[in-house]
Specification:
heterodimer; A: six-stranded mixed beta sheet; 10 helices; B: two-stranded antiparallel ribbon; globular
């Protein structure tokens, strides 16, 4: 059986500057994988490479299909949704419009129902459905970003620092929803997160990047027990 | 009082022409962040196409529709061939490209159709409509009606259709738009096509009044620019209201202030641009993005 996402020997550069020197990682169907590492390790660049937002080489295969060189909008239509750094919501458009855009490319009649469903899951978004996304709080915007990403019914969800800038209680809320989505939808996730403890709680497996390379990988429980990880990322 | 109302209605009609071109400017400004200086010349060229078709015996309405279709296609080609390669780079390159386009289109029209002034057939019957004591020009009323219909259609397109929503999303954040699967390049092409069509509409509406030559839109562009600046360059509603204000102010000043007359009328939009830039650079309706950290 082919994995949902397989990355081998991934390199990527911004102009002359090489950001990734050889990243390897695998996400199985329905698996949640955490991508950890210090600032500048290449976590965000890895996600951007998957979506064709940065020039990359090596191998990225989604259900066996090669993604290198594919335009961003085509990658998205294959079933990969990306809730990017900074959330990437359309600040001048309303919550409902943002959600409709999440379902771009879907032609089935259930879009309406899905939108209602996510509004139910995130009641605070429902209250603000006609407000511009830019007027939402950080937590609400993060929920909107997640809901919007899920409206494409992705097989793989890429999440870039969903906890960034959020109050602890709101972070908890977001991660509870992510856990529910994993359980109910079986959506595979690749989760970039500074908060390693939180990410490892949700994840099945984890990879640690340093200076653009995969330096450590294994089941989440093993990574959590790893000394170097505990010292560097878990503050223990 | 009757005279006043007639002048105001004529002013709104002129303003409606400026509004069509101002909407074109706003449409492109919102997606690329620059003003398309060639917008007026592209409109002039399309107006010549309408004239040439009519001159060749095509019924006027069909000639106009043909020119609008031509404008739409030409706008898309311009985006794809000239704008796309420099898009997302230095805004100055885009400005230079549109200035170059201005010169090329203007010369091309002169080369094809010559520099003599041509009479453009009237789209509306001459004469006036008597409403009470007021006699309003049917042409003015027709121009206003056309603009209102176009604004209504644009509003429907951008707020009620998926394609309109996608175009707004692409204009607002190209990278986020790509992430939800929107082909951003194609949306920009559509936007340029639509803008070019709006400009052409302004051209055919005004050509009968101004007569047709290669400088048809040079003046109109200044007024449209003033209308868009007054309303706010990122606001379609602002472009329409701003252009109406410019049209009415121009008509009133030309009629009631002797010094201004018809020779100095062009000072009105220039003065308004100056004051707006000084007092409220974002315009009446333009606003900085709503954001909350």
């Amino acid at each position: 059986m082919t994995a949902l996402l397989e990355i081998e020997g991934l390199t990527a550069s911004y102009g002359q500057i090489r950001a990734l020197h050889g990243v390897d990682l695998t996400v199985g169907e329905g698996q949640v994988v955490a991508l950890l590492g210090p600032n500048g390790a290449g976590k965000t660049t890895t996600l951007r490479s998957i979506c064709g937002m940065v020039r990359a080489s090596g191998r990225i295969a989604f259900r066996g299909r090669d993604l290198i060189g594919l335009a961003t909008e085509k990658v998205t239509r294959l079933g990969i949704a990306h809730a990017p750094e900074g959330r990437g919501t359309f600040s001048g458009l309303t919550v409902t419009e943002n959600l409709k855009l999440g379902a771009y490319g879907r032609r089935d009649p259930e879009v309406r129902r899905d939108i209602d469903r996510w509004l139910e899951t995130f009641p605070r978004l429902a209250d603000r459905r006609d407000q511009p996304a830019g007027s939402l709080s950080g937590g609400e915007q993060q929920m909107l970003a997640v809901a919007r990403a899920l409206l494409s019914r992705p097989a793989l969800l890429l999440l870039d620092e969903p906890s960034l800038g959020l109050a602890p209680i709101v972070v908890r809320e977001v991660f509870d929803v992510l856990a529910r989505i994993r359980a109910e939808e079986g959506t595979g996730m690749l989760l970039v997160e500074q908060n390693a403890a939180l990410a490892l709680e949700l994840a099945d497996a984890a990879y640690v990047l340093a200076s653009g390379r995969t330096v450590l990988s294994g089941p989440a429980s093993e990574i959590r027990a790893e000394d170097s990880v505990r010292r560097s990322y878990l503050g223990q | 009082m009757e005279r006043f109302l007639q002048v105001v209605v004529d002013g709104i009609a002129d303003g409606s022409v400026y509004a069509a071109l101002a909407l074109a400017l706003v449409l492109i400004f919102r997606s690329t962040g620059v003003v398309n200086f060639a917008q007026g010349e592209m409109a002039m060229f399309s107006t010549f196409v309408a004239w040439a078709l009519a001159d060749a015996g095509v019924p006027l309405l069909l000639a106009v529709l043909g020119a609008l279709a031509f404008a739409f296609a030409a706008g898309m080609v311009v985006e794809r061939v000239l704008i796309r390669p420099v898009e997302g780079g230095n805004p100055l390159s885009l400005v230079i490209v549109t200035l170059g386009l201005f010169i090329v289109v203007n010369s091309a029209a002169g080369w094809i159709w010559g520099f003599n002034i041509k009479e453009f057939p009237a789209l509306f019957p001459g004469g006036v409509a008597e409403i009470g004591n007021v006699s309003l020009s049917i042409e003015s009323l027709g121009i206003i009606a056309v603009l209102l219909v176009v604004v209504g259609l644009l509003w429907l397109l951008f707020t009620k259709t998926p394609i309109g929503l996608s175009m707004r999303a692409a204009a607002q954040s190209p990278s986020s738009a790509r992430l939800v699967g929107i082909p951003v390049g194609r949306m920009f092409m559509l936007g340029w096509g639509l803008a070019s069509l709006l400009g052409a509409l302004a051209g055919v509406l005004v050509a009968h009044r101004l007569f047709l030559d290669t400088n048809l839109m040079a003046g109109v562009l200044v007024y449209s620019f003033a209308g868009a600046a007054l309303g706010g360059f990122d606001s379609p509603i602002g472009a329409v209201v701003g252009s109406w204000i410019i049209g009415v102010t121009e008509a009133l000043a030309g009629t009631y202030i002797d010094v201004i007359g018809s020779d100095l009328k062009v000072l009105v939009p220039l003065g308004i641009i100056f004051v707006v830039l000084l007092v409220r650079p974002s315009g009446l309706f333009g606003s900085p993005e709503v954001t909350r950290a």
